[in-house]
Design goal:
By secondary structure, the chain is of the alpha/beta class. The protein has 2 domains: about 5-135, Rossmann fold (3-Layer(aba) Sandwich), CATH 3.40.50.150; about 145-330, Rossmann fold (3-Layer(aba) Sandwich), CATH 3.40.50.150. The protein contains 10 helices and 15 strands. It has helices at about 5-10, 30-35, 45-50, 80-85, 105-115, 170-185, 205-210, 220-235, 275-285, 300-310, and strands at about 20-25, 40, 70-75, 95-100, 115-120, 130-135, 145-150, 155-160, 195, 215-220, 240-245, 255-260, 285-295, 315-320, 320-330. Strands 11-10-9-12-13-15-14 form a 7-stranded mixed beta sheet, with helices on both faces. A 6-stranded mixed beta sheet has the order 2-1-3-4-6-5. Helix 4 packs parallel to helix 5. The mean pLDDT is about 95. It binds S-adenosylmethionine. S-adenosylmethionine binds next to helix 7 and strand 10.
Length: about 325
């Protein structure tokens, strides 16, 4: 359903265009189709993309280039905004309109847009929302994906703008990799088919593939899955990375282990929903006795949740911030 941000983007948009790009704003697709039949949609979140007619979706955000109007939900990260602004370059007269809740906006967003457009200004606020307008494309080529070699880990990771963590390796993930390498409390990951759930830039998947595991990777973010695929290619490793929600599409008892640094947001209970749902689904996808390796911020009550939902869970590594657990699927 359209919200106040969508309504403001739409009200600010010119109602004439030869080709319209819609970025992360599926609710604006119908309106855009009333302007022109040439509507090209990219949504980073698989759930948003799933709500759009498949024939309108582009395969890659680079396919958006050449439109004269781009309507976007402003992403939270500046890197993701940079990627949005880069991929809609091409036509000499493209206008970009990006909207968000004012509390999620900051002046650095104007600066990012100003790198790609000659003029940037803001709409008046309405219903706690605002739109940034950008005109006069500078025609800078996209420099996404970015790749960074991590010599200490022995592999490279890759990121598009919206990939969680960019090309850094998350500190929780480092603890998880250390535990997997045997630096924790003597837990062992058996060789087999292992799924990196919520793969982000693919750092866990690369580590597993280097160890000779058969590696599956799953993320709801296109930028994560595409970044992981790029990293696998750069490293000469094989990873079957798929874009989707939760564990949808994986067959029952098809995986020997799941390794995850799952999504969470500090202190907001409802934001653990995806993770708790994955814990529930894991018992379906893991073979009986299969392991779930998980790293999380130590204040979160995940050990209890894992024990209740999946099976016996023990802590195998811990530092000042993070806890790594291993759960044996007992259901
Ligand atoms: C904390 S990040 C970890 C990323 C990466 N594994 C790392 O260690 O840097 C969690 C990841 O879970 C993904 N995610 C969130 N909800 C999801 C869902 N419902 N299904 C699949 N992946 C999801 C996010 O897009 C994000 O990339």
């Amino acid at each position: 359903m359209r919200d106040a941000v969508d309504d403001l983007i739409w009200d600010e948009a010119p109602k004439e265009a030869a080709a319209v790009a819609i970025l992360d704003a599926p609710e604006l697709v119908d309106g855009a189709l009333g302007i022109t039949p040439d509507v090209r949609v990219f949504c980073d979140d698989w759930r948003d993309a799933a709500s759009v007619a498949p024939e309108l979706l582009v395969e890659h955000p680079d396919d958006l280039g050449g439109v004269d109007l781009a309507l976007a939900r402003l992403p939270k990260s500046l890197a993701a905004l940079d990627h949005q602004a880069a991929v809609v370059q091409g036509a000499p007269d493209v206008t970009y309109l990006g909207g968000a809740r004012i509390r999620h906006m900051n002046y650095s967003m104007n600066e990012v847009l100003a790198k790609h457009f000659a003029a940037v200004n803001a709409s008046l606020g309405r219903s706690k929302s605002r739109v940034l307008r950008a005109y006069g494309p500078q025609g800078l080529e996209s420099d996404w994906p970015k790749v960074r070699q991590h010599d200490d880990l022995g592999f490279a990771v890759a990121a598009y703008g919206a990939t969680f963590g960019g090309t850094k390796v998350d500190p929780g993930t480092r603890l998880l990799l250390m535990a997997l390498a045997g630096g924790g409390d003597h837990a062992r990951l058996e060789a087999g088919t292992v799924l990196d759930w919520g793969c982000g830039n693919g750092s866990v998947a690369m580590w597993l593939a280097k160890e000779g595991m058969g590696v599956l990777a799953r993320d709801v973010s296109w930028s994560a899955v595409a970044g992981t695929a790029v990293a696998a290619e750069v490293n000469g490793l094989t990873v079957d990375a798929t874009w989707g929600d939760g564990l949808d599409g994986y067959a029952d008892h098809s995986v020997d282990a799941i390794v995850t640094n799952p999504p969470f947001h500090q202190g907001v209970a409802k934001d653990s929903t995806d993770t708790l749902k994955m814990f529930d689904e894991a018992s379906r996808v893991l073979r009986p006795g299969g392991q779930l390796w998980c790293v999380y911020n130590s204040h979160l009550p995940y050990r209890r949740a894992l024990s209740e939902r999946l099976g016996p869970t023990r802590v195998v590594a811990q530092d000042r911030h993070y806890t790594v657990t291993v759960t044996s699927s007992g259901r």
